[in-house]
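thread: overnight batch results

M.L. [08:02]
morning all. the overnight job finished for the chain we discussed friday. pasting input first so we're all looking at the same thing
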Amino acid sequence: MKNALIKINRQKLSNSSKRKAQEALHERPARRCSTIPTLPKTLIETHNILNNYNLMTNRGEQFLFINSAETNIIGFTCDTNLEVLRQMKTVFIDGTFKYYFCNYHCCL
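M.L. [08:03]
and the structure it wrote out:
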């Protein structure tokens, strides 16, 4: 009888934990909030954030290719991507974007 009671209590605890996790899907985890910078309001702020944020690929390559405050050009790629592109004879590009921030324009 005692084992059955413990099993029921565990099941209640487990179900309430699952329910709590499902109800809180809209909340951003605190750990993620501390690692992602806030959205910049100006172009200068954007360049400063990118200079201070070490963007690396999962292979340890630098991902921020160009960040020019003079020309306001920001490019993201790595040496591996450039090498693959260099070897290709045909490259297909999709430049369809639904929105972008007012200070930014997308060029391909």
